[in-house]
Design brief:
By secondary structure, this protein is α+β, with helices and mostly antiparallel strands. The protein is built from eight helices and seven strands. The strands form two sheets. The chain has a five-stranded mixed beta sheet. A hairpin with a 3-residue loop joins β4 and β5. The protein starts with a helix and ends in a 12-residue tail after the last helix. The N terminus and C terminus are likely disordered.
């Protein structure tokens, strides 16, 4: 009887994981088609019309790009949030060395912020590394991207800090205005219902919570005189013997940073917009 219940539970988790992937996949396919249509329209206006006609349509193309980026961000986040609770425990976690990985993506964050004109800066600190955890880069990326996006919306300049401690705690802190009681409740899984928090703009914090809980990280809000301070308490870790030798963690980390950059770019495009660059070969 117990084995039947366990098999049923595993089957439900697998079904929800497939549903999650299906939602994201269908949305990604739809947005890819829409973006291709916009690009095709731009090429037609560029090569098949006069410069005057193209300039007339430029504002419309830029607005279409902005709206597509915004909707793509919202749809992806909504899929994560809708399926997050149901798929807890269904993620396939693997050993991840966080000091190297967070340092790599911090460099990507700071480069992207500079390109966009933000003066905010992300710093990663650690004590007594390396710092291993059972995680996935996708979930870690989601936590970092959403925390940075939330910070930039209220404070485009200032310091953001990630600190890895020997006490199995990952600390996030920034120089922003902090959070109100309802936002703190969203992170701690108590207080207002998610729908009311979403209306207040706390969707990013709800996603941070879901990504953390999917890796069995507990979330705590620390008191701070200024800004936001969050602690992620990570479970104890022991490297599996089968993977403890001849494992090039650095190479594995480098191969995944491009996925983080794509996710960060999509998030910031959706929040702040990215104007379509002016073409260089308008038909005369």
């Amino acid at each position: 009887m117990a084995s039947e219940k366990r098999e049923q539970s595993i089957g439900q988790a697998q079904e929800q994981a497939l549903l999650h992937g299906g939602l994201r996949g269908r949305m990604a396919g739809a947005f890819c088609t829409l973006q291709s249509s916009v690009d095709a329209l731009q090429r037609y206006l560029l090569t098949g019309t006069t410069p005057e006609v193209y300039e007339t349509a430029r504002a419309m193309l830029e607005e279409m790009d902005r709206r597509l980026a915004m909707l793509q961000r919202i749809s992806g986040n909504a899929a994560d949030l809708a399926c997050g609770v149901l798929t807890r425990g269904a993620e396939e976690l693997a050993p991840l060395e966080l000091t190297d990985y967070l340092s790599e993506i911090a460099a990507c964050v700071n480069e992207e912020l500079t390109l966009r004109g933000f003066t905010a800066h992300l710093t990663v600190r650690w004590k007594d590394g390396p710092f291993w955890a059972m995680a996935t880069t996708g979930l870690v990326d989601g936590i970092v991207v959403n925390l940075i996006s939330n910070f930039l919306q209220v404070c485009p300049g200032g310091n953001i800090r990630l600190t890895l401690g020997p006490d199995r705690i990952l600390r996030y802190a920034d120089d922003g205005p902090g959070m109100d009681a309802s936002a703190a409740a969203a992170l701690l899984e108590r207080g207002e219902a998610p729908i009311s928090l979403q209306k207040k703009g706390s969707l990013g914090l709800l996603l941070v919570r879901e990504y953390a809980l999917a890796m069995n990280w507990s979330v705590q809000v620390e008191p701070a005189e200024q800004g936001l301070a969050i602690r992620f308490v990570l479970p104890e870790f022991e490297m599996p013997a089968a993977r403890s030798s001849l494992w090039d963690a650095a190479a594995e980390t480098r191969s995944r940073t491009s996925l983080f950059v794509a996710r960060l770019t999509r998030e910031l495009d959706g929040v702040f917009g990215l104007p379509r660059p002016a073409p260089r070969n308008i038909k005369k």
